[in-house]
Structures are given as C-alpha cells and as structure tokens.
Write a structure and sequence with these properties.
The structure holds two protein chains of two kinds. Helices cover about 10% and strands about 40% of the residues of chain A. Chain A is mainly beta. The longest helix of chain A is centred in the N-terminal third of the chain and has 6 residues. In chain B, a hairpin with a 4-residue loop joins β10 and β11. Classes of the chains: A mainly beta, B alpha/beta.
Chain lengths: ~140, ~375
C-alpha cells in the first residue's frame, strides 16, 4: 500500500497539472520545478488541455506484476499539444487501428489495483483515447 | 599512470538453478583471481541491478566480500540499471586511478531466475520513472518497441531492417562457450518469429539470464614485465546520463548520453572512433544496437541498420560488434552485462577469442546502457 505516494500525485494523475516557466514560457509535464529549457526556477502551475497525438505505441503482452489482468494493453508516447510528451496507456480503442499521429485526448481511468483480486486500493490516473469518438449506436 | 585489467573471470550465462547469488559471484571472482596470478584486492565493487527486488537481498558488497574470503575490505554495490556493471568498472577504475587502491576487484552479478514472468518484469521496470512510466504498466521492452516503431516511421526503413543484428550476434555466440545461445539463426527465421511487443519480435530482444563476470584492476607498474596473461589498458572511461524518462527527451531516437560518453572516452584515450577495431555495444534490443552505432558516430542518423545489412558488423567487417554473441546471444544478466562486455573485449585484445578472434584487435570500444541510454557507460580498452 502506498497511499500517500498516489495521493500526492493526484493533480498530475487526474488533471494533468504541470508547470509553465515564468521566464521562457515552456510548458512542463511532469512538474519538476526547474525549467528543462532555460534552467530557471519554474513553479507556476499549469493545467494541460489533455489533447495530443500519438508519437509512438506498442501493445504489451508480458505485463509486469499488478498489470497481468489488463494484458494485452496498448501503451503510447503521447505528444501533448502544448509541447511535452507523456507515457500513457491508450484506452477505448476497441479494434480501431492505432497510428502514429493519431489525435487523442486524456481520460481518467483505473491504472491498477493494489494487492490481489481488486480488493486493494484502486489507483486512478490518465489514459488517452482517440479524439474522434465512435458515433453512438442509434437507439431502436 | 595506467590502469590495467590484470585478470578476468566469468560464469556461463543461463539459468543457474543450482547456484545462489553469492556462489555465482564467487565463481567469477575466483576465476579472475586465478587469471591474475593471485593479486589480492583491497576493494570490491559490485555491479548489480535486481538483487533487492528479485532476491530480497541488498548489501551485496559485504555479502560477496565475506563469502569470497575477502572479509574486511572496502566493498559496496553500484547500481545504474542495465549499466550497473559498466558503472562498477568505472568505480574500480577511479579507485585505482586515484591511487587510493592498488588492486580493485569488480564483479557484475545477476541472479534473476529464482522468480519468473511478471515478478521479473516488474523488478526490471523499477529502472523506469516509477511515478510517470512504470505506473502505466510500461516495461523497458515496451519502451524499446515504441522506439523501434518510431525509428521505422521516421526513417522509412524496410520491415526487416534490423534482422542483421540478431543474425550476427547468434552467429558469434556459436563460438563462445559461456554464451546462452550457441546456435546460428536459420535464414528467414527472423521474418517468421512471433512478436513480443509489436513491432519488436522475439529475436529483437536479448534473453534475461543469470550470470557473473569479474575483472581485477591494478596499476601497470605493479605488474611484472613478463606477466602472463598480457594486461589490457583502460585508456578511456566515461559515464553520461540523459533524462530518466523517455518522454522527456526532445528526440527519443537520439541516444545523447551514449554519444557524449563515447566522445569523452575516445577523447581521453586519444583515439578517434574510426580507429576502433571492434565495438562491444548494448544490443539488448536490436534497435538499440542501431541507435548506439549512430550515437557513436559510426553511422548517420537512421543508417545504423545498414551496417548490419551490409555485414560490416561481422567479425571480419569494418566495425565488428557483439563479437562473442553480444547481449543477444550471450544472454542478458542485467547488472553483470557491462562486466561481461569488458571480459569479452579483453579476450579479444589478448588474442584469446578463438574462432571469434577479431583480426589484429588492439583498440576496443565497450559500452553498456541503463534504460534507453538514460545512463551510458563507455570504456576504451587497448592492448599494452
């Protein structure tokens, strides 16, 4: 159980809160307090839009402990529209082909359950889904 | 003042069910000490990545020193993921170079087959950014697959462009009695083998395995002039780091730390890259071999695979790599890999590589990586 660890990341996990550098305007995610572009202090919070595109992706079959129940799953490097890249799972892709450059948007989903059988703490966080959702099936 | 490698030792790489972590390390140490004619080390540097996670065992310095009959000496672990072995060599080099230590023992050891599957995967994934990469269920293998897909996308290379790397490694593994895989790949097999994490297939990734390798370092003047075997000189030594997270890089296909450490090690040695007789690089994933060749300046960006395609990386090619099977065919005992590479380079420079001997090998470049070159350790070795 690592409750404080996940709790203190809640702004990042649930709302993609990073930073903007007050000196050079660089957008920073994850927050790191020192601007990777200009090296100055950067502690101004900035909420990312959650929109971006797939830079690269793959599907995992040999999942690490704690993730086997979800395998196979697709992970991606997502280039956010504000600049930074994040590592995240893709979700809601069904049988839709994933492509480099595909527009995606952030959603909040369960990442894993601590302990066995989903009875431990649930860890939620960001995943990304295709930006253009499938049209809903017409109600009959 | 020259630091030299006076002795080498290694166990075979594979599934050592009957041997414990400490016994494995001791076997390599014993072999290195016999090879060095009984030099007594004053310090032990252990390269290891996984023991705290896989064996529930930290504090390997004292564990191994005590077990190896070296109770009382300076001893501790150096950890830098897959580059732990190379980092331990760097620590031993600095200790001898500084003059504080006359004889340093470096051992890389990994014992991971006591656990299998998901537990090993999650142990290996601790080398990623835990909060922002591993939490998403990503592993080093998945990262390599994403790098490989992007490599294919950006450079528009043919589908089987990387096949030459495992083919060369396996061909060279045949002649290495310590290698895990000692069979050449049949033509056409690469194209048919199953995917691990698309587009990365079973032959694009090295197998996890147990193993230990050791070297004894000392100052050149402490070795008798007629010593046998001939000592090998460490002419250059460098570690560089990049971002931990792959996603924090402006260009994930640029192995910047690998590039910087090659530059620094070559500069120190006064040897330009084109003069190297061979290059033991990190071919844990075939795309990393291509990117390492590019980072070292041996190929243009996006062209590393061409060296493999054209056979220039084979034993008689322009720049042989993985000369005793590399990580791919020798096997990947994570934290020990960097020491294995150095042991193999010494075999080459002594002219003891048998059927795998690189002709007239005098200058070697040796590089191990932690993660996607998040850490890169490069050494230049020369025959004295």
């Amino acid at each position: 159980m690592e409750i404080p660890r996940h709790w203190r990341l809640k702004k990042q996990r649930y709302a993609l809160v990073g930073e903007v550098c007050p000196h050079c305007e660089a957008k920073i995610f994850p927050p790191r307090d020192v601007c990777p572009e200009c090296g100055d202090e950067a502690k101004t919070l900035f909420e990312f839009s959650g929109r971006g595109e797939v830079y690269s992706y793959t599907t995992l079959h040999n999942a690490p402990a704690g993730y086997q129940a979800y395998a196979p799953y697709t992970v991606a490097l997502v280039k956010l529209e504000e600049g930074p890249m994040v590592t995240a799972q893709l979700t809601d892709i069904d049988n839709q082909p994933v492509e480099v450059g595909m527009p995606v948007e952030m959603v909040t989903r369960k990442l894993r359950a601590e302990g066995d059988d989903d009875r431990g703490m649930l860890v939620y966080g960001y995943k990304f889904r295709p930006m253009e959702l499938q049209p809903l099936a017409a109600a009959d | 003042m020259d630091v030299v490698i006076a002795g080498i030792g290694q166990t075979s790489v594979g599934e050592h069910w009957h041997v414990s972590l400490r016994e494995l390390a001791f076997q390599a140490i014993e072999a290195a000490r016999v090879d060095a004619g009984g030099l007594l080390p004053q310090a032990l540097f252990v390269g290891n990545m996984l023991a705290p996670k896989v064996s529930g065992q930290a504090h390997l310095g004292v564990l191994i020193a005590d077990f190896a009959g070296l109770r009382g000496i300076e001893a501790y672990t150096i950890e830098a993921a897959g580059a732990s072995g190379g980092a331990a060599l760097r620590a031993g080099y600095l200790a001898v170079k500084s003059g504080f230590v006359d004889v340093a023992l470096v051992v890389g050891v990994e014992k991971l087959t006591d656990k299998v599957g998901p537990e090993v995967e999650s142990a290996i994934a601790t080398s990623l950014d835990s909060d922002y990469e591993a939490v998403q269920g990503v592993t080093p293998l998945a990262q390599a697959a994403m790098i490989m897909r992007r490599y294919f996308y950006e450079y528009e290379v043919p589908q089987n462009a990387l096949a030459g790397f495992p083919v060369t490694a396996h061909a060279n593994g045949v002649g290495n009695s310590h290698a895990m895989f000692r069979k050449a790949l049949k033509p056409g097999l690469y194209e048919r083998v199953g995917m691990l994490s698309e587009p990365l297939n079973m032959f694009d990734a090295a197998p996890d395995a147990d193993g230990a390798a050791a070297v004894l370092l000392t100052r050149a003047e402490l070795i008798p002039p007629d010593a046998s075997p001939t000592p090998v000189r460490i002419a250059g030594s460098s570690i560089a780091t990049d971002t931990l997270s792959l996603h924090d890089r402006p260009d994930p296909l640029d192995f910047r730390a690998a590039r910087i450490s090659v530059g620094q090690a070559c500069h120190q040695a006064g040897i330009v890259i084109g003069e190297m007789d061979f290059f033991e690089l990190c071919d844990i994933y075939s795309v990393y071999a291509a990117l390492s060749l590019e980072a070292a300046g041996l190929a243009e960006r996006g062209q590393g695979w061409v060296l493999a395609e054209e056979g220039q990386i084979s034993l008689k090619g322009r720049i042989p790599i993985s000369t005793l099977g590399g990580v791919k065919a020798r096997g990947n005992p994570w934290g020990a890999t960097g020491v294995y590479q150095v042991v193999e380079a010494v075999q080459q420079l002594r002219g003891e590589a048998g059927v795998n001997q690189v002709p007239a090998a005098e200058k070697a470049l040796v590089q191990c990586l932690g993660g996607p070159a998040s850490t890169a350790v490069t050494h230049v070795l020369t025959a004295l």
